[in-house]
Design goal:
mainly beta; 7-stranded mixed β-sheet
Length: 126
């Protein structure tokens, strides 16, 4: 079992930056590919970003590419999402997700996810 707890959400203005974190506990953190998903009000949950077990490889949804950066600290079992140039369309609950390290390439598909956090709300005002 892996427990995932997100933090760092809040209310920001358009154009601001924010970093959300995900603290993992349980099984060895480096054994998992990690990702971020988000769910905006009235919409389905969507993929945001993924990172492989070592942190060497990442990929992003087109909507956040160039603005968001995913990273991880395996020593401290923590996942991060740095969000820059935020806009109102980024308002959502952000979820941390873990999948077996071998599922990195398909992390964008929710079926690959083994564990979910409960989410942290990011609200971007205009």
């Amino acid at each position: 079992q892996v427990q995932l707890v997100e933090s760092g959400g809040g209310l920001v203005q358009a154009g601001d930056s924010l970093r959300v974190s995900c603290a993992a506990s349980g099984r060895t953190f480096s054994g998992y590919a990690m990702g971020w998903f988000r769910q905006a009000p009235g919409k389905e949950r969507e993929f945001v970003a993924a990172i492989n077990w070592s942190g060497m490889y990442t990929y992003y949804a087109d909507s956040v590419k160039g603005r968001f950066t995913i990273s991880r600290d395996n020593e401290n079992s923590t996942l991060y999402l740095q969000m820059d140039s935020l806009n109102v369309e980024d308002t959502a609950v952000y979820y941390c997700a873990a999948a077996d390290w071998s599922e990195y390439d398909v992390m964008a598909a929710e079926y690959a996810v083994d564990y979910w956090g409960k989410g942290t709300l990011v609200t971007v005002s205009s």
